[in-house]
Write a structure and sequence with these properties.
Layout (H helix, E strand, L loop, with lengths): L6 H19 L2 H14 L3 H26 L3 H8 L3 H32 L3 H17 L3 H27 L3 H9 L6 H12 L3 H11 L8 H31 L9 H39 L6 H5 L1 H19 L3 H25 L3 H4 L6 H25 L6
Helix pairs in contact: 1-7, 1-10, 1-11, 1-12, 2-9, 2-11, 2-12, 3-8, 3-9, 3-10, 3-11, 3-15, 3-17, 4-5, 4-15, 5-6, 5-12, 5-14, 5-15, 6-12, 6-14, 7-11, 7-12, 10-12, 11-12, 12-14, 15-17
GO molecular function, one term: manganese ion transmembrane transporter activity
InterPro entries: NRAMP_fam
Keywords: Membrane, Transmembrane, Transmembrane helix
Length: 400
């Protein structure tokens, strides 16, 4: 299969995988987290972004490279390391993907409400149908790649415009990137979890092997795609950070009910508010697509029947998410619990990948870079500790 993938296809799939991962990360939660932490930490949040980017790159490079070398999806690698572990990983990813997809669908409804005045539930249903349409077409993979790339560029361009209108203190932001006045460890963990947590970690890696990009000969392409993915998500994070910093540096107060919307409106008036609608809808609907595709990719290898009907399962996944949002709304208690579980997915998956990297029956004669292993181990320990803390503090919320 590898021989049939020409250079043009490789470049297209590489960009598609990068944008699938990046736009999966840039969802409603991403916009809110970035806004809230910037308001709290001001220019010092630049240091948090820098550290999280370095951790994100370490995690993505480790995971994507092992997936590519083995030619297997993450759940199959996990089962090879320890029989049954792949099913646990798949269950966690699918649960997290479904719960957060309800939030993504809600975000799409909110974006449609801002843009067209539609009831959020009506906007969510329309967005659901559009997302499903991508997987109905014959070349679903190519359609998904193009869709995420276009909306990714739209989000970045519009946020760039709002950043310039906000007139942030660029010098102060640059200085605090390396010399912060305060440090918030929880902010770092939250950003890492929001960028490479849960299903997001595997979105691009699974897309690459589904397109036939696997084997040692493709490692340069895989590494470049992984770094590009983090680069796109990080660029969006930096632009939004600067926009928020510009607004709050002027002494303006954000609306606690919808912080990101107030940033866009305070920076660029009514036009800014409409731009927020476009950005929110784009961020949400691309995350819907990414969550559905990646979550289903975790159960495809467990049954040939599921594999043959993967598109139908993806469509069903989107429909169920939308149905729950329309009937129940966003189930806060479920989101709290699954959010806590989500914090454990990255250390579990990355830990499994690091073990797999040194098993010849999985990776053959591939030699994993020692520096990546060291960075990976540090990330596993840090995220496991913070994920455990999040889980312990999340469960009591259910019984209040």
């Amino acid at each position: 299969m590898n021989q049939t993938v020409d250079q043009k296809q490789i470049r297209s799939v590489m960009l598609g995988a990068a944008f699938l991962m990046a736009t999966s990360a840039i969802g409603p939660g991403f916009l809110t987290q970035t806004t809230v932490f910037t308001e709290q930490l001001l220019a010092s949040f630049a240091f948090v972004i820098l550290i999280s980017i370095l951790i994100d790159i370490a995690a993505q490079l480790n995971i994507w490279r092992i997936i590519a070398v083995s030619g297997k999806r993450a759940q199959d690698i996990a089962n090879d390391v320890l029989p049954g572990l792949g099913y646990v990983l798949a269950l966690l990813v699918v649960m997290g993907g479904l719960a957060f997809n309800i939030g993504n669908i809600g975000g799409a409804g909110l974006g449609a409400n801002v843009l067209f005045g539609l009831d959020p539930k009506t906007g969510a249903i329309i967005s659901c149908l559009l997302a499903i349409g991508i997987f109905i077409v014959k070349e679903a993979g190519r359609a998904m790649d193009r869709f995420t790339q276009i909306l990714g560029f739209v989000m970045i361009a519009l946020t760039l415009y709002v950043m310039f209108t906000a007139q942030p203190p660029y010098g102060e932001a640059a200085l605090r990137t390396v010399a912060p006045l305060e440090l918030d460890v929880l902010a770092i963990v939250t950003l890492v979890g929001g960028t490479v947590g849960g299903y997001i970690t595997f979105a691009g890696g699974h897309r690459l092997i589904d397109a036939g990009i696997k084997g040692k000969e493709y490692l340069p392409v895989v590494s470049k795609s992984a770094v590009t993915a983090i680069g796109v998500a990080s660029l969006m994070r930096i632009l939004l950070f600067l926009a928020v910093l510009g607004v709050v540096s002027q002494g303006l107060k954000l609306d606690p009910g919808n912080p990101p919307a107030s940033v866009f409106q305070l920076a660029a008036g009514d036009i800014g508010y409409k731009i927020f609608g476009v950005v929110m809808w784009s961020a949400a609907v691309t995350s819907v697509v990414g969550a559905a595709y990646t979550s289903v990719s975790f159960i495809r290898s467990f049954s040939t029947w599921i594999d043959r009907h993967a598109k139908k399962f993806i469509i069903g996944f989107i429909l169920i998410s939308t149905l729950v949002f329309v009937i129940v709304g966003q189930p806060v208690k479920i989101l709290v619990l699954v959010g806590s579980l989500n914090g454990l997915i990255l250390p579990l998956a990355l830990g499994v990948m690091l073990i797999a990297a040194y098993k010849t029956r999985i990776v053959g004669d591939y030699k994993h870079p020692a520096w990546l292993t060291v960075l990976g181990i540090i990330t596993v320990i840090a995220m496991a500790l913070m994920g455990g803390y999040s889980l312990i503090n999340g469960i009591p919320q259910l019984f209040k």
